[in-house]
Amino acid sequence: MPWDFPFWIAHRGAGKLAPENTLAAFRLGANHGYRAFECDVKLSADGVIFLLHDATLTRTTSAHKQWAQPSDTIAGNHPWHALSQLDAGTWHSRAYAGEPMPTLDAIAHYCQANGARLNIEIKPTPGQDAATGAAVANACARLWAGRSDLPLLSSFQIGALESAQSAQANMPRALLMDVFQSEWLAHANRLGCRAVVFNYALWDVQRVEAAHAAGMKAMSYTVNDEWAVAHLKALGTDGIITDRVDAFTPQVT
Ligand code: G3P
Ligand code: MG
Question: Is the CB of residue 220 below 6 angstroms from any atom belonging to ligand 1?
Fold first, then answer.
């Protein structure tokens, strides 16, 4: 399939302007003109795929206040009926009090209804790489059945990408890399990746050429400065994930 993913991608929905990985963040990012979004997903204890960055609930939910005995803060140890009740907005600001964590299904429906694309970062609870990768790929095959605007599945976890590839070979994949690993291209090739998404500081001319020569797009996270945007454009890279939805306007790129 041709590559038609937008260049500008809003990190976690709307960066830091709204509670990350919530529908409210997606709506705010969309109000700033964004038509592509990155989000982090993991599995509940009963197999529901939902949006959350951290392995624990501590930073971005009110579990410590809402649950009488929040003895286990690992999100993936709890069933969805419990996770779905949590306030994932108050930590950010009063205006977002009560905002829930969304399911991947809800975000897929939002994106499809609004003509937006989705970069789903598979962020497994530690020890659940294979199960999460397969579940996300299978869910995406169901949610985007018969559609051409497929999501891009990315992960730092090679095991998650391997299981996504085994489950749904046709679902686009991208390898994430935060610290340089010399085997990046071999891994990305073996995983059948359409793109590699680097910490933006890792890109140079040779690596961009190597990715392109292998038929992969060269993308970056998390790019919040004008000088870095100019540098990455000069290198000929193909996509930027940013927090600064208020600073960069997709239509003018
Ligand atoms: O997907 C790119 C970026 O989101 C990876 O880092 O920690 O913000 O999920 P992180
Ligand atoms: Mg992420």
Answer: no
